[in-house]
Amino acid sequence: MIMDLTQGTLEEKNNRAKKMMLWFGIISLIMSFAGLTSAVIVSSSRPDWSKDLTLPTIFMVSVIVIVLSSITFILAKRSLKNGKREMTTAFLLVTLGLGIAFIYIQFLGFGQLIDLGYYLTGPTSDPKASFIFLIAFVHILHVAVGLICLLVVIYNHFKQKYTASNMLGFELAGTFWHFIDILWVYLFLFLYFFM
């Protein structure tokens, strides 16, 4: 039986519309990053493509941090469903801290690349390094958006907007957060093994 998207209360229709808009956004982000990784594949045959550059190991730490942040977000949602507001608050704040730590670690990775003599642009830049900077920085921008969403969730949580039966904003933010986490795992593996 096919579900009629026009049926239900106005609130149910609005909730479906919000979820659909989020998924349209996620699909467009997937297409954007697919384009970036395709550009890496095409550019890797260039004669000036560095064979010596390897991804700094600090980026592996960022993978661990971002995966932990997804776990703490899941634990926050579980705590909210179980009516444990204090635990929800604690897990949301830990998720926020891990998100900020992720961005800090990314910039440490950029610093390591610069220390090795690789830059985004300029006469000493390298196409491979430029792609690492570009892909990681564009992803950082999306993590920043995720952090803003997380701050809104924390604010709404303090206002007691969410309950076990009313979690839409919480769930939408969680879906986006998990997406950007999975995206970084993919990008890291791509940059580590392909480049």
- Helix content class: over 70%
Note poorly predicted spans.
none
Biggest pleated-sheet summary: none
CATH fold description? Four Helix Bundle (Hemerythrin (Met), subunit A)
- Please tally the helical runs, counting DSSP H or I stretches of 4 or more residues: 5
Number of strands: 0
- Give the CATH class: Mainly Alpha
Spatial shape: elongated
The whole-angstrom Rg is 20 Å
Distance between the termini: 47 Å
Structural class: mainly alpha
Order of helices and strands: HHHHH
| Strand composition percent | under 5%
CATH superfamily: Cytochrome c oxidase, subunit III, four-helix bundle
How confident overall, as mean pLDDT?
Answer: 92
Question: How many discrete structural domains?
Answer: 1
What is the architecture at the second tier of CATH?
Up-down Bundle
Secondary structure: elements and pairs:
Layout: H1 10-43, H2 58-81, H3 85-115, H4 127-158, H5 168-194
Helix pairs in contact: 1-4, 1-5, 2-3, 2-5, 3-4, 4-5
Written overview of the protein:
The chain is mainly alpha-helical. The chain has one domain (11-49, 56-194): Up-down Bundle (Four Helix Bundle (Hemerythrin (Met), subunit A)). The protein is 76% helix and 0% strand. The protein contains five helices and no strands. It starts with 9 loop residues before the first helix and ends with a helix.
